[in-house]
Fold these 2 entries.
Entry 1:
Amino acid sequence: MKKFVLLTVGFTQPTPEIMESWNQWFKSIKETIVDQIGLSKGKKVTKKGITELPMDKDAITGYVVIKAENMNEAIKIAQMCPMITSIKVFEVRSHE
């Protein structure tokens, strides 16, 4: 099994219905989850300075690390997500 990071993109104030759909998705993929975390306020740091990142439709709001056989399987899991804007799927590079 390979590991994949699913970055969740997009924020809107959660309603009970939104929270329920997310909870159902997490329950449906619980056997594949390696790690997960939600994100809130953030800052962008560049050589030119520091900028506040807004919690909006472009915000990265969290990540889920999953186990899957391949990218296609990881994408199928991502497609089931009740995403706000999108899910970005990355394969975790092995250090071996």
Note: The chain has one domain: 2-39+55-91.
Entry 2:
Amino acid sequence: MLGFAALSTEVRIKTIKLLARAGVEGLPSGEIAKALNIPANSLSQQLTVLSEAGLVTQERDGRNVFYAINFDALRKLIRYLAVDCAAGHVKGVKING
């Protein structure tokens, strides 16, 4: 699954966390770079990986590119981990309902 590979670096995990907190409106790439304290060109590469995996969406607004988390894709990835990998049996966690 591309989702797992996309989450294989600390920067991409931090990006997902930041975008999850930002909600459906997302954030412009410059604001993400500033919040994570990384150069814009480095962030661009990370956002491309997340986008190709379907975990983030992008939308251009004039000169800004806004990125937002794809909550449906993230839910599917979590469900895969919790239900398919663990066969619905995660000790101490109610999966269904």
Note: The chain has one domain: 2-85.
